[in-house]
Amino acid sequence: MTPLIAKSMLVNSVIYSSSSLNLTQGNSGVVNGPQLTVPSNTVFIGQMFFYSTTSLSYGLALSLEFNDSVYAVFQKHGGFAVGFRPGLMCPLYMSNNTGFGVVYQTSVGYSFAGGSGTYSGTLVVSGVTFLNRLS
Amino acid sequence: MTLFNLFQYKQPLYTAVTMTGSSPWSGTLTIPANSIFVGNISMTAPAGTYSWRIRAYRNSPFTVYGGAENVNYNSGNLDIGLSFEVTIPNLTSSDLAVTVYLINNSSASTPTVYACGLLLGRDGGKVISVGSDVSSTQISTSLAHNTLTTVSTYSIPAGSILVGRFHMALAASNGGYGGLHARVVTGSQLAGAGTSSGNNVGFVGGAPRTYGASTSYIIDNSAGASPLSVSYSVKQYSSTSSSLSLIGYRSQFLWGVG
């Protein structure tokens, strides 16, 4: 990776996208959130975060994932923390040096200790894209 | 991000915050006048301790800048690591003394605490502009039991600032209890550290992808004349396996100084 020095910083666009997700208590799995499109020849600097919209009644482990097999962040919430509303956040840095836009899939991985019913939350992706290779 | 447009770069801040005595410890981080510190406050301590809490604050007016805590279920086996990101402004004409407070439940050996990041100021220095290269590296490894192992390295080119996040997790389900410890070091300086441990959700029969340790970091080599080496290390302890398969991800970008 070669450092590319920019003499000016131009904001190309602002990205904000969110999805409401439902996690099934007692199970584990992966639920897809919004897609992130990084435009051609830009750098994306931002974050994704998940926050719950219902209280937790059983132990829950959560992960934020990016493009399926690529793990973005890991965070565990253990114990039977009734009423707790866990959330997690991680920064994202993506570069697209191609001549076309690249689409990435965000998702939440989860594992419940027990319970039944639906646990709901929202996965948000936000950030700024900068024009690449400025001179 | 707007912050870096409005303020001027001054210098890196790699500072060991000296901790003395026994738990609770406290040390002083000095933020120079007319500066803003943006970065991490991180600590590591060897295995043998249980739960930890760290925070940074000032007394007058009382202000808490950030903190972190961790309960280490594998107290006899797993190194502890905590990091939290802070933005500490000091736009006065006097230096600001920030207290870093650290407590655990067993008064174990003295921990290592570092502040690592950037000092931005209102005068002097150069404007930081955004470099345009981002690297994303997936890391897969089989990690020996209870041994701090370097799983990746990187060389920061002279004239650049590295900003990123490092995370490692189990690649397969694992029964029993255990944990992961991850740290990022440049030279002898701790740039970031994290530990996650447990004995129920996420580790025993849970989804492996939900279990891991991570940290972020900001490392400055903008004034350096030569590349600066960074190492990414992991330590694992499992009650049921002498080695574990891990998968991780390093996501980072370079800033250049224009």
Please tell me about this protein's structure.
The complex is a heterodimer of chains A (135) and B (258). Chain A is an all-beta fold and 135 residues long. Helix content of chain A is 0%, strand content 64%. Chain A has strands at residues 11-24, 28-38, 42-52, 60-66, 70-77, 87-96, 102-112, 118-131. In chain A, strand 4 and strand 5 form a beta hairpin. Chain B has 258 residues and is mainly β. Chain B contains 1 helix and 17 strands. Chain B has one helix at 2-6, and strands at 8-16, 25-31, 35-45, 51-58, 63-71, 80-90, 96-104, 112-121, 128-129, 134-144, 149-156, 160-170, 178-186, 189-198, 212-221, 228-238, 243-257. Chains A and B meet through strand 2, strand 4, strand 5, strand 6 and strand 7 of A and strand 10, strand 12, strand 15 and strand 17 of B.
The shape of chain B, in one word, is globular
C-alpha Rg of chain B, in Å?
19 Å
Mean pLDDT of chain A: 76
Q: Give the DSSP E fraction of chain A (strand runs of 2 or more residues).
A: over 45%
SSE layout and pairing:
The complex is a heterodimer of chains A (135) and B (258).
Chain A: E1 11-24, E2 28-38, E3 42-52, E4 60-66, E5 70-77, E6 87-96, E7 102-112, E8 118-131
Antiparallel strand pairs in A: 1-8, 2-7, 3-6, 3-8, 4-5, 4-7
Chain B: H1 2-6, E1 8-16, E2 25-31, E3 35-45, E4 51-58, E5 63-71, E6 80-90, E7 96-104, E8 112-121, E9 128-129, E10 134-144, E11 149-156, E12 160-170, E13 178-186, E14 189-198, E15 212-221, E16 228-238, E17 243-257
Antiparallel strand pairs in B: 1-8, 2-7, 3-6, 3-8, 4-5, 4-7, 9-17, 10-17, 11-16, 12-15, 12-17, 13-14, 13-16
